[in-house]
Amino acid sequence: MTATTTAAAPGAAGAVDPIVRVEHVHRTYGSGRGAVHALRDVSLDVRPGELVAIVGRSGSGKTTLLNAIGGLDRPDEGRVLVAGQEVSALDERGLVALRRDVVSFIFQTFGLVPVLTAAENVGVPLRMRRTPVAEREARVALLLDLVGLGPHARQRPGQLSGGQQQRVAIARSLANSPRLLIADEPTGQLDTETGRAVMALIRAVVEAEGMTAIVSTHDPVMVALADRVVHLADGRLVEG
């Protein structure tokens, strides 16, 4: 692993404990000659407040790594820790709490509820958390303004463009003030210009909300906006 993919050693002067620590993770799908080695001995630290871009060809292991970090998949070997919790050892209740209170996701597919307005979609995580109505409404209004969609609060997904729908999804991902944002190819369904705007928005909201973000992307704009770039090839971290 390269120096560009690791945090300062624990105990080093001025070191900050990583919010994400991936230790010697392996993940294989299938067995025998048909086995796919999605991750091979991957180790990675991500510091609080970083925006890290994970790049690599399709099939390089990017999504598998994000899923392991976010608790959507479990490694066959190794450990994943997020905010001090060993994600790879949590039971289902622990994983639900992690995804409710610590980690949030943005996917290529926006995942909005078609019958709900933009504001109602953003408010779903707050409803699940039973946030008081006044507090919920204020948070939703703040987030829609943050992503530039305040005037569209009452519109449903079918009335919004693809870029606007992704902005709603971003606002929803921020509803519970997560410490870690995981985005898997968030501009994969958007045109180039809209994708650039969404990438810049992710950079802006990470700074505005004071969170950490890990984004898998093919987009050179996101790479340019990232604090650090991690390269994956055939399930391994590589140079360059």
From TrEMBL:
GO terms for cellular component: membrane protein complex; plasma membrane. Keywords: ATP-binding, Nucleotide-binding, Transport. Gene3D superfamilies: P-loop containing nucleotide triphosphate hydrolases (3.40.50.300). The keyword Nucleotide-binding applies. Residues 20-240 form the ABC transporter domain. GO terms for molecular function: ATP binding; ATP hydrolysis activity; transmembrane transporter activity. InterPro entries: AAA+_ATPase, ABC_transporter-like_ATP-bd, ABC_transporter-like_CS, ABC_transpr_LolD-like, MacB-like_ATP-bd, P-loop_NTPase. The keyword S-adenosyl-L-methionine does not apply. This is ABC transporter ATP-binding protein. It comes from Cellulomonas shaoxiangyii.
